[in-house]
Design a protein that fits this description.
Structural class: alpha/beta
CATH architecture of the largest domain: 3-Layer(aba) Sandwich
Radius of gyration: 27 Å
Shape: globular
């Protein structure tokens, strides 16, 4: 891990200078090559705390780095501007680092977190009353990829789908199915989609099971499978809703009004108090959600991550405050809001399904574009941003299509290696294109660590495209066949491309 290695050396240099403040060391890749392979502003940051001139401190740090750099990581260190320190990595260090790629193979890119955690991730959690839409698909891919990233960072991760199988929506589903079977109109507020005719089962439980089975099948086709399917009814069967309400009662955080039990939410900054138990004795969805989080914490997880739809944005603060009121640490509950997806065919917005004239389902998108393209497109935009999904682009077999471009790079490498015999167990860097490719390959663990830490799956898709571009540029400039050193470098690129695609749960074809 290049960034981590540089950070460790900087930390040692700071200690040599007896600067022991708890400073956050940031190392970045400069936009222009003349500013080095990596750069840091630590001298500017630290100077304010120790009362030194930034450039003077940068000079002192540079001298200290020469002492602690026993592995000869750097070929040159320069000071720029007000005190930036620019690092040029030595070719020998890069060559030695590439040995780890071929040594680790499938484990290449995995990192060890400083603080490994037991994490529960809950996402999708669609109502069991109809087919999954494209928004569900995006949240499924984002959740699944974050889970894979966290595992690659050394965390113990459990994934969970929460099934709301209690309440008005399932009662309306049953009424809607029975009405459709009897040729009657859909009841007010019911479900009138064409899928209702396909729901199997005679009882409410069997109807829900029919829809859940269909949802599981579609998610599996997308490469998403959950460790747990948690039924809301479990909370009621175990009296955990009552237990959660009682915790708030014992803390004097509830009151009764008009026969209902209310949570004193305004004490925690909410705009109004919230009903926990209705006047007829039925708990609200809010009470059930509290019970669900109470159950999660009871299971001994260090950290909870929920991915909710954008319509839940206003609910985040409320649930976090209530969790805190129950006595759990709010910072142990992390909520990611999955943004909306708009479907396009080129510049034309797709609003309705050609098949049914209704909502375009996730199943239809997967059938049209394939699971690989669907996953890549869902993952390639920042989780905090709206996504425009171009169905026509996702189907293209050309370099305009980013997933095709990345997969083609892997297939091209496999084709090259099939014509060569692996002779070297090392790479000699003698050309700038070789150096660029080596740097890009060796930055992979840093990408994994940062994407896991900040929950940014799109960093993987960006990196995959950058690595493919760097490889194609290298191959155009450097003759590979007949050069054992370059064959070794190309094989390191193959390993890295395959591993990043595996983290994205996208296939790495050997021919196309």
């Amino acid at each position: 891990m290049l960034k981590r290695q540089i950070c460790l050396l900087l930390q040692s240099a700071l200690e040599q200078l007896e600067i022991k403040d708890n400073l956050e060391i940031k190392v970045d890749i400069p936009r222009q090559k003349e500013y080095g392979d990596y750069s840091t502003n630590i001298a500017i940051v630290a100077a304010k705390k120790v009362g030194q001139n930034p450039r003077e401190l940068a000079t002192n740090l540079t001298e200290a780095l020469k002492v602690v750099d026993t592995q000869k990581v750097f070929s040159k260190i320069e000071i720029a501007g007000p005190g930036f320190i620019n690092f040029f990595l030595s070719d020998k260090y890069l060559q030695a680092s590439l040995l780890e790629v071929a040594k680790q193979v499938n484990n290449w890119g995995q990192v060890t977190s400083n603080r490994q955690q037991k994490i529960l991730m809950e996402y999708v959690s669609a109502n069991p009353t109809g087919p999954l839409h494209v928004g569900h698909g995006r949240w499924a891919v984002i959740g699944d990829t974050i889970a894979r990233l966290l595992k690659a960072a050394g965390h113990q991760v459990t994934t969970e789908f929460y099934v709301n199988n209690i309440g008005n929506q399932v009662e309306k589903l049953e009424a809607s199915v029975l009405a459709a079977r009897g040729g009657k109109d859909v009841p007010e507020g019911g479900y009138g989609g064409s899928y209702i005719k396909d729901v199997q089962g005679g009882t409410r439980e069997e109807m829900l099971s029919s829809i859940l089975d269909q949802q599981k099948t579609i998610l599996k086709a997308l490469g998403v499978e959950f460790d747990n399917w948690f039924m809301e009814s479990t909370l009621h069967d175990k009296n955990e809703v009552e237990a959660a309400v009682n915790i708030l009662k014992e803390k004097n955080l509830t009151f009764e009004k008009e026969g209902a039990i209310w949570f004193k939410a305004t004490q925690f900054g909410d705009d109004k108090d919230r009903v926990l138990v209705r006047e007829d004795g039925r708990p609200t969805y809010f009470a059930a959600d509290l019970a669900y989080h109470y159950d999660k914490f009871k299971r001994g997880f260090d950290h909870l991550i929920n991915i909710w739809g954008t319509d839940h944005h206003g609910y985040v603060k409320r649930i976090k405050q209530a969790v805190g009121a129950m006595g759990f640490a709010q910072d142990k509950l992390e909520i990611i809001i999955g943004q909306l997806v708009a479907l396009y065919r080129g510049k034309e917005v797709v609003r309705m399904s050609k098949r049914t004239g209704e909502m375009v389902t996730l199943e239809e998108v997967i059938e049209e574009t394939g699971a690989d393209a669907t996953r890549f497109f869902f993952a390639m935009t920042d989780v905090n941003s709206h996504l425009n999904f171009d169905l026509e682009l996702a189907k293209k077999k050309s370099n305009d299509n980013p997933v095709f471009y990345v997969q083609y790079a892997h297939a091209r490498i496999c084709s090259i290696l099939a014509k060569c015999k692996m002779e070297n167990e090392e790479c000699r860097i003698e050309h700038q294109a070789e150096r660029d490719l080596a740097l890009k390959i060796l930055s992979f663990p840093d990408i994994v660590e940062e994407a896991a830490k900040y929950r940014l799956p799109h960093r993987l898709t960006e990196y995959a495209k950058e690595l493919a571009t760097t490889f194609h540029s290298f191959y155009e400039q450097c003759k590979v066949i007949g050069n054992p050193s370059r064959i070794y470098l190309v094989n390191c690129c193959r390993i890295t491309l395959k591993n990043v695609l595996q983290l994205l749960a996208i296939s790495a074809p050997e021919s196309m």
